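2024-03-11 09:14:02 INFO worker-7 job=invfold-0412 stage=load source=structure_tokens
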């Protein structure tokens, strides 16, 4: 896997959001979007570029503000034929380790 799977998913979701909002408004100017959603334009730019790990609540703000469908935002495909079972397992284990490490740091 060249690009980590979770980063690819973030990028795909961000691209879908940008495309869907652009179809509705014919304008994806970040400052217009931030005034409607209450989210900072730099945050929205990060979402569109796949650099933001969205929460369900944050994603819902964007979806509801533009009356989007969740299924359209999540219309992404993962080509599992390009990922071996071992790669997938190693990737999942690495994500769990990162999460555990962050929890330990907070204490």
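2024-03-11 09:14:09 INFO worker-7 stage=emit residues=107
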């Amino acid at each position: 896997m060249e690009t980590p799977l979770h980063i690819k998913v973030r990028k795909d979701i961000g691209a879908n959001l940008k495309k869907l909002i652009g179809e509705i408004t014919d304008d994806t100017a970040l400052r217009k979007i931030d005034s409607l959603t209450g989210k900072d334009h730099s945050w929205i730019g990060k979402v569109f570029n796949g650099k933001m790990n969205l929460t369900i609540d944050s994603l819902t703000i964007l979806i509801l503000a533009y009356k989007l469908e969740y299924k359209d935002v999540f219309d992404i495909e993962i080509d599992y034929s390009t990922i071996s079972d071992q790669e997938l397992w190693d990737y999942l284990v690495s994500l769990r380790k990162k999460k555990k490490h962050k929890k330990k740091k907070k204490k």
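2024-03-11 09:14:09 INFO worker-7 stage=report msg="The helical segments are 5-25, 30-37, 41-48, 56-65, 70-73, 85-106."
2024-03-11 09:14:10 INFO worker-7 job finished
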